Amino acid sequence: MRRTFVYFILGFVFLVMQTTLLAAMLPLHFKPDLLLILVVYLGLNEGYVRGGALSYLLGCLQDVFAAGYPGLHGLALLCTFLAVRGAAARLNTESSTLLLLLVSAGTLLQAALLLFALGFFAEAGALWVIILKGILPQVLLNLLAASLLLKAATWLQHRFAPRFKLPGLPRAGRHYGS
Amino acid sequence: MLELLRKYRTPLLAGCLILAALLFYSARLRQRETTNAFEQTALGLTAPVQGGVDIIADGVAGVWSAFLGIFGNSPEVLRLSAENRRLRSELAQLTELRLENERLSRLLAFREEIARQAVPARVIAEDASSWFRTVLIDRGRQDGVREGLPVVVAEGVVGRVIKSAASESRVLLATDASSAIAGLVQRTRARGICRGQGNLLSFDFAMHWEEIEEGDLIVTSGTGGVFPKGLTVGTVSRVSPGGFGLFKTVEVTPSVDFYRLEEVLVLIEEHR
Questions:
Q1: Of A35, A75, A110, which to mutate for an interface test with B (greatest number of B Cβ within 10 Å)?
Q2: What is the percentage of chain A residues whose pLDDT exceeds 90?
Q3: Lower CB density within 10 Å: C or N end of chain B?
């Protein structure tokens, strides 16, 4: 329960950073999708029930601050989580590069899901043009953010809480073979 | 049968979850223009944090500048550097105040020009996604701001309110893909719809025989039910004949700089 709460608070902090600090620092409306990175991390480390519920909740929270369609990001993040969770069972998760690879794939999948959900159920307008123009910078930005977060989390754990094990981080660290 | 269910338990569970999420999303589409209790609570809880982060970011930037200034050599250099930083900081503050004063004066003059009652608001956050164009403002229901109200600046149309909590609201910018504003070419009165394209706008449904040239001003037609007539939307930046089609392809550069949006006006009087 405590872990779920920590994930939720982390998601909330990421969301605030995305809408304020990162939005002010980066040009052309681009910002890294930190919630997507968190959901990919959940897919590698959490079970279907906890991870699925958290992903959907975080997605619904994102919907309050993105676009104007309640449940849109909830659906997209839930599908992304399930895809990563399903793939993680067939992949060697003892590699930090896998997280980066899955973040890239997750960005593409999320964009496709948004286009599907808006195209079939609502009015997508020229969203596909915006996504096509920006998908490559977005993938690169998410990759950069994921690698920085991974390094920061590993460093923080080794520096301040070497005995405290965060799920997934020990095996993602360089001492555990990546 | 039970064995089959047990065998495919995980894919079935995943399918059910996706279906439930899809149904919820689909059902909520009809109430898109209203703000539910979850959204109001989340907006209410987050807005003070988002406002605070701006102040913290300024503080961090100041500390970082001071930290960089430590690497001077002699005490004289350090003293002069400190004085230089202080004077620069004061100058920056004064410049910021002057610019804010200019912007607010323009808004005030514009507010007096328009016939409708307007509430000034400050932009406190942007959209959480790179694909959509919305901003969060620090005015809400307590100030009379409701869903559907137009938002403008002195330069022209900004967008309309799509979500409204007690003291915060979200504004859909004119450049968002789902935004559509009824407009007309000021010079020739040709009618069309301004749709968001991310950073630019397109002027759709302009008949191919209409006379539209680069540099023409597009203003709101007042027929959409949201924006009053005559507000500037943008300037025509490219016109293509559209081949054998019925409509011209017209690209419009918005008159508002959406990257530097800081203060806006919400027109709260009922549209006539």
A1: A75
A2: 1
A3: N
